[in-house]
Write a structure and sequence with these properties.
globular; 14 strands; five-stranded mixed β-sheet; mainly beta; 205 residues; 3 helices
Length: 205
């Protein structure tokens, strides 16, 4: 996998924050819904808009095999929150969404990045779930079974729509600006925090 570009996405879904549980540590819940369309690029002055859809169960390969998947801050492996490797990240994959429950270990609360991250999350400045994934190599999955690109219905627009059919998921990240705009964050008190404004993302090869 070295040298291959890690692809990033983002989706609508709720993020629920909880105080320390009986086992200690803070808890975060979220979900990445399948089948939703994201605008990655408006095409600029001369190009065509680019959109992306992640098909139901597209991440099933590594999730079902219980391979190591991390929960990170902003796609940075230097800012880890939880992992399936040590049981602190639990995943539930359905045709509707990939949901997660994470328990942040008390030891991580002393990490330099954590206070800033948690404050931003509570303030509603982090409001989306973004997956880091790679398309399987052609030797493993034929390209036409891994992804497809289609023309948008002319009645809706002129975008190129890329659908991810199968992908190798390596991490989920909490990000400031998800590609999908409907994300909301629910604090433990039940307060609905401000919805972040999404910026258009570049088309990923």
């Amino acid at each position: 996998m070295m040298g291959e570009e890690l692809q990033l996405g983002a989706a609508l879904g709720g993020l629920e924050l909880r105080a320390a549980g009986a086992a200690g540590g803070r808890q975060i819940r979220g979900r990445f819904p399948y089948g939703k369309r994201a605008v990655l690029s408006d095409g600029g002055r001369t190009g065509r808009p680019r959109k992306e859809v992640i098909a139901p169960k597209a991440f099933a390969y590594r999730v079902e095999r219980r391979e190591t998947i991390h929960l990170l801050v902003g796609h940075s492996y230097d800012r880890p929150l939880a992992s399936t490797n040590n049981g602190s990240l639990l995943l539930r994959d359905t045709p509707e969404a990939l949901s997660f429950e994470a328990r942040v270990a008390p030891e991580l609360e002393a990490a330099p990045f954590f206070a800033d991250f948690w404050a931003a999350l509570r303030a509603g400045l982090i409001g989306g779930v973004s997956p880091g994934f790679r398309i399987p190599p052609p030797a493993a999955v034929p390209p036409e079974e891994a992804e497809k690109t289609e023309e948008e219905d002319p009645a809706e627009g002129r975008a190129l729509i890329r659908t991810i059919l199968q992908a190798l998921l390596f991490e989920l990240s909490l990000v400031v600006s998800p590609a999908y705009q409907e994300t909301e964050v629910e604090a433990r008190s039940g307060l609905i925090l401000p919805r972040p404004v999404s910026h258009l993302r570049r088309w990923r090869p």
